[in-house]
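chain below, 154 aa
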Amino acid sequence: MLEKVIEDRFLSQGERTVDTVRGLVAGGANAGKTSEDLIRAYDAGRKPLYKRAYQEGDREIMSPAMERLMGSPTFEDAMKRAVSTGKDRAIAEGYGAFNPGVTVENGLIKFTKTKPTGVPQYPNLQYWDSVKRELDSMANVARRQEIRRLSQEI
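prediction:
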Protein backbone atom coordinates (compact mmCIF):
# COMPACT_ATOMS: atom_id res chain seq x y z
CA MET A 1 0.00 0.00 0.00
CA LEU A 2 2.88 2.35 0.85
CA GLU A 3 4.50 1.57 -2.51
CA LYS A 4 1.28 2.58 -4.28
CA VAL A 5 1.08 5.91 -2.45
CA ILE A 6 4.73 6.66 -3.25
CA GLU A 7 4.25 5.71 -6.90
CA ASP A 8 1.15 7.93 -7.21
CA ARG A 9 3.03 10.82 -5.61
CA PHE A 10 5.95 10.29 -8.00
CA LEU A 11 3.63 10.28 -11.04
CA SER A 12 2.02 13.56 -9.97
CA GLN A 13 5.27 15.39 -9.20
CA GLY A 14 5.31 17.26 -12.52
CA GLU A 15 1.87 18.72 -11.94
CA ARG A 16 2.72 19.63 -8.33
CA THR A 17 5.92 21.36 -9.48
CA VAL A 18 4.03 23.42 -12.05
CA ASP A 19 1.46 24.40 -9.41
CA THR A 20 4.24 25.45 -7.01
CA VAL A 21 5.98 27.55 -9.64
CA ARG A 22 2.69 29.17 -10.65
CA GLY A 23 2.04 30.00 -7.01
CA LEU A 24 5.48 31.56 -6.64
CA VAL A 25 5.10 33.59 -9.83
CA ALA A 26 1.61 34.75 -8.90
CA GLY A 27 2.78 35.86 -5.46
CA GLY A 28 6.08 37.40 -6.57
CA ALA A 29 7.12 40.15 -8.93
CA ASN A 30 4.20 39.49 -11.28
CA ALA A 31 1.51 39.67 -8.60
CA GLY A 32 -0.34 42.44 -10.45
CA LYS A 33 -0.43 40.55 -13.73
CA THR A 34 -3.09 38.07 -14.71
CA SER A 35 -2.19 34.70 -16.18
CA GLU A 36 -3.33 36.06 -19.56
CA ASP A 37 -0.87 38.97 -19.20
CA LEU A 38 1.95 36.55 -18.44
CA ILE A 39 1.05 34.33 -21.40
CA ARG A 40 0.91 37.34 -23.74
CA ALA A 41 4.33 38.51 -22.50
CA TYR A 42 5.76 35.01 -22.95
CA ASP A 43 4.31 34.73 -26.47
CA ALA A 44 5.62 38.18 -27.42
CA GLY A 45 9.11 37.18 -26.32
CA ARG A 46 9.20 33.80 -28.02
CA LYS A 47 7.55 34.77 -31.31
CA PRO A 48 10.60 36.52 -32.86
CA LEU A 49 12.85 33.67 -31.72
CA TYR A 50 10.64 31.04 -33.32
CA LYS A 51 10.35 33.14 -36.48
CA ARG A 52 14.13 33.38 -36.76
CA ALA A 53 14.60 29.68 -36.05
CA TYR A 54 11.98 28.74 -38.64
CA GLN A 55 13.66 30.99 -41.23
CA GLU A 56 17.10 29.52 -40.51
CA GLY A 57 15.64 26.01 -40.51
CA ASP A 58 13.70 26.51 -43.74
CA ARG A 59 15.53 23.77 -45.55
CA GLU A 60 15.00 20.09 -46.03
CA ILE A 61 15.72 18.18 -42.83
CA MET A 62 15.91 14.40 -42.81
CA SER A 63 18.21 11.96 -41.06
CA PRO A 64 18.57 8.20 -40.71
CA ALA A 65 17.17 8.51 -37.17
CA MET A 66 14.06 10.27 -38.48
CA GLU A 67 13.64 7.62 -41.17
CA ARG A 68 13.86 4.95 -38.45
CA LEU A 69 11.31 6.75 -36.25
CA MET A 70 8.90 6.94 -39.18
CA GLY A 71 8.50 3.16 -38.81
CA SER A 72 6.66 3.75 -35.54
CA PRO A 73 2.86 4.00 -35.83
CA THR A 74 2.84 6.62 -33.04
CA PHE A 75 5.44 8.76 -34.82
CA GLU A 76 3.57 8.34 -38.10
CA ASP A 77 0.34 9.46 -36.43
CA ALA A 78 2.11 12.54 -35.02
CA MET A 79 3.42 13.33 -38.51
CA LYS A 80 -0.08 13.12 -39.99
CA ARG A 81 -1.57 15.32 -37.28
CA ALA A 82 1.27 17.85 -37.61
CA VAL A 83 0.33 18.57 -41.22
CA SER A 84 -2.98 20.16 -40.20
CA THR A 85 -2.12 21.46 -36.73
CA GLY A 86 1.08 23.00 -38.05
CA LYS A 87 -0.88 24.93 -40.66
CA ASP A 88 -3.38 26.12 -38.06
CA ARG A 89 -0.63 27.16 -35.63
CA ALA A 90 1.35 28.99 -38.33
CA ILE A 91 -1.67 31.08 -39.28
CA ALA A 92 -2.76 31.70 -35.66
CA GLU A 93 0.76 32.77 -34.64
CA GLY A 94 1.19 35.03 -37.65
CA TYR A 95 3.90 33.06 -39.47
CA GLY A 96 1.94 32.92 -42.71
CA ALA A 97 1.64 29.90 -44.98
CA PHE A 98 3.08 26.60 -43.84
CA ASN A 99 4.34 24.12 -46.41
CA PRO A 100 5.11 20.94 -44.49
CA GLY A 101 6.61 19.15 -47.50
CA VAL A 102 4.33 16.25 -46.59
CA THR A 103 0.85 15.21 -47.62
CA VAL A 104 -1.39 12.54 -46.20
CA GLU A 105 -3.23 10.57 -48.85
CA ASN A 106 -5.53 7.69 -47.91
CA GLY A 107 -3.84 7.56 -44.52
CA LEU A 108 -0.33 7.34 -46.01
CA ILE A 109 2.39 9.95 -45.57
CA LYS A 110 3.91 11.13 -48.85
CA PHE A 111 6.77 13.55 -49.26
CA THR A 112 6.06 16.30 -51.76
CA LYS A 113 7.95 15.95 -55.04
CA THR A 114 9.80 18.92 -56.43
CA LYS A 115 8.54 19.66 -59.94
CA PRO A 116 11.68 19.79 -62.10
CA THR A 117 13.47 16.69 -60.85
CA GLY A 118 10.83 14.60 -59.12
CA VAL A 119 13.17 14.26 -56.13
CA PRO A 120 11.34 14.13 -52.78
CA GLN A 121 11.15 17.40 -50.86
CA TYR A 122 11.64 16.71 -47.16
CA PRO A 123 10.07 18.67 -44.31
CA ASN A 124 11.73 21.67 -42.67
CA LEU A 125 12.29 22.65 -39.03
CA GLN A 126 8.82 24.18 -38.67
CA TYR A 127 7.20 20.87 -39.65
CA TRP A 128 9.42 18.80 -37.34
CA ASP A 129 8.63 21.23 -34.52
CA SER A 130 4.93 20.54 -35.16
CA VAL A 131 5.62 16.79 -35.05
CA LYS A 132 7.41 17.23 -31.71
CA ARG A 133 4.46 19.21 -30.33
CA GLU A 134 2.10 16.43 -31.42
CA LEU A 135 4.28 13.80 -29.72
CA ASP A 136 4.34 15.92 -26.53
CA SER A 137 0.56 16.23 -26.65
CA MET A 138 0.15 12.49 -27.13
CA ALA A 139 2.52 11.80 -24.21
CA ASN A 140 0.60 14.20 -21.95
CA VAL A 141 -2.70 12.51 -22.79
CA ALA A 142 -1.19 9.07 -22.08
CA ARG A 143 0.29 10.33 -18.79
CA ARG A 144 -3.08 11.76 -17.65
CA GLN A 145 -4.85 8.52 -18.59
CA GLU A 146 -2.32 6.48 -16.61
CA ILE A 147 -2.69 8.75 -13.57
CA ARG A 148 -6.48 8.48 -13.84
CA ARG A 149 -6.21 4.68 -14.10
CA LEU A 150 -3.91 4.47 -11.09
CA SER A 151 -6.11 6.74 -8.99
CA GLN A 152 -9.12 4.52 -9.71
CA GLU A 153 -7.24 1.54 -8.30
CA ILE A 154 -6.85 3.19 -4.91
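Residues 125-153 form the longest helix (29 residues). The two ends are 9 Å apart (CA to CA).
thats it, cya
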